[in-house]
Design goal:
The protein is an all-alpha fold and about 180 residues long. Helices cover about 40% and strands about 0% of the residues. Helix 1 crosses helix 3.
Length: about 180
C-alpha cells in the first residue's frame, strides 16, 4: 500500500527476516505440512455422486476462458447460442479437470466439444436434440448440473473409448431426463 510523501519510512518498517538472525545462522528450512486440520477431507471421504454436487478443483474457473478462446472452432446449429455452449462445455471441462485433481486445460474443452459434437459439422443427428439441451442453459444451473453429473465416470476419465456407441448411449440416457 502506498504511503503519503510526507510520511517517512522508519528502519523498523524494513523487512527483518534475515537481519534478525544471528551471524552464522541461516534461515531454517520449513517443516513438512499435512492437511489434518478441521475441514480437510481425505480422498476416501469425497462424495462424488449426489444431486447438484459440484466438482471442486484448482483454478477451475479458467475453463471459461479456455472455452471462450476455443469457441471460434465450434459448429453451432440453429437454436444454439455461443454463450450457452461456452458455459456448458466449460462446466464439463471443470468436472473433467477436477476428476484428475488439476486445473483445466485446452484438452478438457476439446473433450467436451467432442462429447457434444461441436468439433465438426453435425453427423450423428445432433441438430435434432442438441438445441433443446443447449438453449438457455447458461442461465439454468439446475439443468447444467443434471447434464454434467449424468456423464459417466468412465467417459470423464477417458477409460471408455469416445466412439459413437459410447456417446450415443449417454445421449439416450440424458434425452430421457428432459
Amino acid at each position: 500500500m502506498a504511503t503519503k510523501d510526507f510520511i517517512f519510512k522508519r528502519m523498523i518498517d524494513e523487512p527483518r527476516h534475515e537481519q534478525n538472525m544471528p551471524e552464522g545462522i541461516d534461515t531454517p528450512a520449513p517443516k513438512g505440512w499435512l492437511a489434518s486440520g478441521p475441514g480437510y477431507v481425505g480422498k476416501d471421504q469425497i462424495i462424488r455422486h449426489g444431486k447438484l454436487i459440484g466438482h471442486a478443483g484448482p483454478n477451475i474457473g479458467f475453463a471459461i476462458t479456455l472455452a471462450k478462446r476455443a469457441s471460434k472452432n465450434w459448429y453451432l446449429v440453429k437454436g444454439e447460442h455461443i454463450e450457452d455452449v461456452e458455459i456448458l462445455l466449460a462446466e464439463i471441462a471443470m468436472r473433467r479437470a477436477s476428476f484428475f485433481g488439476r486445473a483445466p486445460i485446452v484438452g478438457d474443452i476439446g473433450f467436451a466439444s467432442h462429447l457434444f459434437g461441436f468439433h465438426g459439422e453435425p453427423e450423428q443427428g445432433e441438430e435434432h436434440w442438441r438445441p433443446k439441451f443447449v438453449h438457455g442453459i447458461g442461465h439454468d444451473e439446475h439443468k447444467r448440473r443434471i447434464i454434467v453429473n449424468s456423464i459417466p465416470e468412465e467417459i470423464i476419465s477417458g477409460n471408455a473409448e469416445l466412439n459413437h456407441e459410447t456417446i450415443s448411449g449417454w445421449w439416450e440416457q440424458i434425452e430421457d431426463l428432459f
